[in-house]
Structure to design on (797 residues):
């Protein structure tokens, strides 16, 4: 097989330059790092706290975790999450501290209200402090409280982590007028995914209270961990990949080397395509090693098998294919390693920039919409068209540029979505539940494929007509 | 059948006319030498034939097919000048790589490669990286890779460049072997002595045009010049021979007789015999290829005086080889 011959040749070349070895060593380090982490389940009490705000400035961890892909939802959230405080967790069925059991939460509504407009209820405790408590007991709107309280669990119920059995007021037993509620939660087979988990290092041999600050619901914890690993890992991998593969084409085109390949019974465009595919296979294998390794050890250590995250292997390879096509084109035209590296990294930065700017305007547009919706509900004047960002020519220009340029940044977003969905739900079928970007991923893939075709086509044409 | 056939082949690189209408014909089973100064277009001719360079005019056929197509390339072996083998390969793995590209099966490659590398004399170093090879060793790997798939025709651009005299002789032997087995060989070379030794036919290229083409013997023969040597102590009767109407001149310790039109050397020989002189040396003088080469390139003062013809030069090479041989053993 001629393709295999060229692949083997590329691998030999990369191996010879030590860069491949460096890449494999780095990947091994990351895998080793993941392998020594341990994940200890927390108590039911600690777990249930994630549904409640720890202070009035921060939304509950669970809300953040379940809405992390919808920043505008959190930013525009109407509500009063810090009104409720978890007082007690009672086991109603099953083993204590098990994600398979059912629990009842006793919630006191004595927090300070700090919502972003609307629905504002004077907190009982504040009125108490001022003295004339007995005279003017605040009006407690039980119905509104229950509705409000429900929102804290709704997101989790919607995805199927828990079931809200009932929320009911309980008799005021301390006589201070603080309303209390009982929330009956039923477990589901997925409850373990949001169960509080405390990470440890060195195979769990070394434990310390300190690590509790890293404790979070399991899926969320794993997603954030994976996110760091991928963010750092894929940057390094792509950078290494660019450096390694940028040698392939100029070296192949050296005088006295290319003649020997051109006289072989293989057409030039096929030779170039094989060389391209050889480089990709090489990246595919190293990415496979790194991601497969991390997936394996994280699965073994945490019991959370994010099989769907293995999709990152082809996805990162495809990301790389876009850059490698640029590198191939530059390499064929300039025959210079330095030019290939610099221009490819330049293209990477440019595509990244376009993607980031697009992401920014996308979020701005959503926020404007949230604001407009609220103004409508509150009966305020909507913003004037000329005051709005959305619909202006700047945004349109950016959108057009984004639409027709290679979508490397979209791929990053897609990777993030894949990892998130998989760690949180274990089922990539849920992806569109968390996908609030109004872009079509198929479009992104298609546009990127077209660009790969354009770069390779130009490179082939140049290679075809050139005398060596 | 003509293995290589070009008719009025032209090739330009921008404003440079590298080939300006070359017509040549290489027959099956011969060793063909292409001579020419630097920049004459020798390499260009091979590259056009092998499809490395395109955009030419005229007609060029290789083994009966249009030159340069992938299919016909699978039937030829090629050693480029200034080759630059990927130095992360070993001699063995390089041949394996090229063999795979040429479509030679795995089992066949494992069998052939050690044999070929043995033939070119680097079998003991075949598992070392090419970057550790000397120049001559690289050249030998280069010849080896050109033989990888038993090609019907082999193009060698300066095959003995950088190779020591013993190695050169080995390579000559190898090429003659290949010829015996029916391969056709096309050589570009500057080493005229070598070309003279092994080529059946040669062509001289100059600035992209063909100056001469023919068998080595035909090209170097100098009609009507005889070199005569007598037994030691005997003196050539120059005046008498001149009286017979011949143009005779001393040349070192021998004499050169130049025949004019319609003359034959026989009367001179008869006359010498009749005088009781003992003939020790009588040969029709030949030009060395180098003389011919210099002459065709407008240099009218070849150092012919020092040369006694073709035999002498090849003898020099043989002497050198013998010295090397002795040194080695
Ligand atoms: N790739 C190229 N681009 C432009 N000009 C070229 C190219 N290759 C060769 N030439 C020119 O074509 C002419 C013929 O070159 P070629 O290499 O065929 O000569 P040659 O006979 O092989 O010389 P040498 O004995 O030095 O190897 C030269 O003038 C050279 O400068
Ligand atoms: Mg040349």
């Amino acid at each position: 097989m001629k393709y295999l011959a060229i692949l083997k040749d590329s691998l030999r070349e990369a191996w010879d330059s030590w860069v491949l070895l460096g890449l494999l060593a780095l990947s091994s380090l990351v895998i080793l790092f993941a392998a020594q982490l341990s994940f200890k389940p927390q108590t039911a009490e600690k777990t249930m706290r994630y549904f409640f705000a720890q202070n009035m400035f921060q939304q509950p961890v669970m809300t953040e975790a379940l809405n992390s892909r919808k920043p505008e939802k959190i930013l525009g959230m109407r509500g009063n999450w810090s009104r409720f405080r978890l007082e007690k967790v009672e086991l109603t069925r099953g083993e204590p501290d098990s994600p398979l059991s059912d629990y009842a939460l006793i919630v006191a509504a004595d927090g300070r209200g700090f919502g972003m407009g609307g629905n504002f209820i004077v907190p009982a405790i504040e009125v108490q402090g001022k003295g004339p408590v007995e005279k003017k007991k605040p009006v407690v709107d039980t119905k509104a409280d229950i509705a409000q309280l429900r929102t804290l669990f709704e997101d989790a119920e919607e995805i199927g982590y828990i079931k809200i059995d009932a929320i009911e007021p309980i008799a005021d037993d301390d006589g201070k007028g603080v309303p209390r509620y009982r929330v009956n939660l039923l477990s589901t087979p997925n409850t373990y995914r949001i169960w509080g988990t405390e990470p440890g290092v060195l195979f769990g041999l070394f434990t310390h209270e300190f690590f509790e600050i890293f404790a979070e619901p399991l899926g969320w914890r794993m997603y954030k961990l994976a996110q760091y690993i991928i963010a750092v890992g894929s940057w390094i991998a792509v950078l290494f990949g660019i450096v390694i593969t940028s040698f392939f084409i100029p070296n192949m085109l050296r005088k006295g080397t290319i003649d020997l390949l051109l006289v072989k019974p293989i057409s030039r465009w096929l030779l170039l395509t094989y060389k391209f595919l050889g480089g990709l296979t090489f990246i595919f294998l190293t990415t496979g090693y790194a991601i497969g390794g991390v997936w394996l050890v994280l699965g073994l250590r945490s019991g959370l098998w994010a099989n769907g995250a293995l999709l990152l292997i082809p996805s990162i390879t495809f990301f790389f294919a876009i850059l490698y096509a640029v590198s191939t084109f530059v390499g064929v035209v300039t025959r210079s390693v330095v030019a290939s590296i610099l221009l490819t990294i330049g293209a990477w930065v440019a595509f990244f920039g376009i993607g980031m700017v697009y992401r920014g305007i996308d979020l701005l547009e959503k926020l404007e919409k949230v604001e407009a919706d609220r103004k409508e509900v509150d009966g305020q004047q909507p913003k004037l068209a000329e005051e709005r960002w959305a619909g202006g020519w700047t945004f349109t220009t950016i959108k057009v540029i984004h639409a027709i340029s290679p979508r490397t940044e979209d791929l990053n977003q897609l990777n993030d979505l894949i990892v998130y969905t998989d760690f949180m739900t274990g089922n990539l079928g849920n992806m569109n539940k968390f996908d609030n970007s109004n872009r079509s991923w198929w479009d992104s893939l298609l546009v990127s494929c077209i660009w790969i075709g354009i770069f390779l086509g130009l490179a082939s044409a140049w290679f075809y007509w050139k005398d060596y | 059948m003509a293995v290589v056939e070009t008719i009025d082949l032209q090739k330009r690189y921008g404003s440079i006319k590298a080939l300006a209408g070359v017509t040549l014909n290489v027959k099956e089973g011969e060793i063909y030498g292409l001579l020419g100064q630097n920049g004459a277009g020798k390499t260009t001719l091979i590259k056009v034939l092998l499809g490395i360079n395109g955009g030419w005019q005229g007609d060029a056929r290789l083994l009966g097919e249009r030159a340069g197509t992938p299919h016909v390339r699978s039937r030829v072996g090629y050693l480029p000048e200034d080759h630059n083998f990927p130095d992360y390969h070993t001699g063995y793995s390089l041949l394996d790589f090229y063999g795979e590209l040429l479509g030679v099966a795995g089992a066949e490659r494992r069998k052939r490669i050690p044999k070929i590398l043995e033939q070119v004399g680097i079998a003991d170093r075949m598992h070392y990286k090419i970057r550790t090879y000397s120049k001559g060793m690289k050249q030998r790997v280069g010849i080896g890779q050109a033989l990888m798939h038993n090609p019907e025709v082999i193009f060698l651009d300066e095959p003995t460049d950088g190779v020591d005299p013993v190695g050169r002789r080995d390579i000559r032997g190898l090429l003659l072997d290949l010829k015996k087995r029916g391969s056709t060989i096309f050589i570009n070379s500057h080493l005229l002595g070598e070309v003279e030794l092994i080529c059946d036919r040669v062509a001289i290229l100059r600035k992209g045009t063909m100056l001469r083409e023919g068998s080595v013997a035909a090209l170097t023969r100098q009609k009507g010049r005889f070199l005569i040597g007598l037994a030691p102590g005997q003196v050539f009767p120059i005046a008498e021979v001149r009286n017979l109407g011949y143009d005779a001149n001393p040349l070192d310790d021998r004499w050169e007789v130049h025949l004019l039109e319609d003359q034959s050397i026989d009367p001179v020989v008869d006359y010498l015999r009749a005088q009781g002189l003992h003939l020790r040396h009588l040969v029709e003088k030949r030009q060395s290829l180098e003389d011919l080469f210099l002459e065709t390139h407008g240099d009218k003062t070849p150092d012919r005086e020092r040369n006694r013809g073709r035999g002498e030069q090849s003898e020099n090479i043989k002497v050198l080889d013998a010295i090397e041989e002795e040194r080695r053993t």
Chain A touches chain B through 29 residues (CB under 8 Å). Chain A has two domains: 2-40+217-465, 43-192. The radius of gyration of chain A is 28 Å.
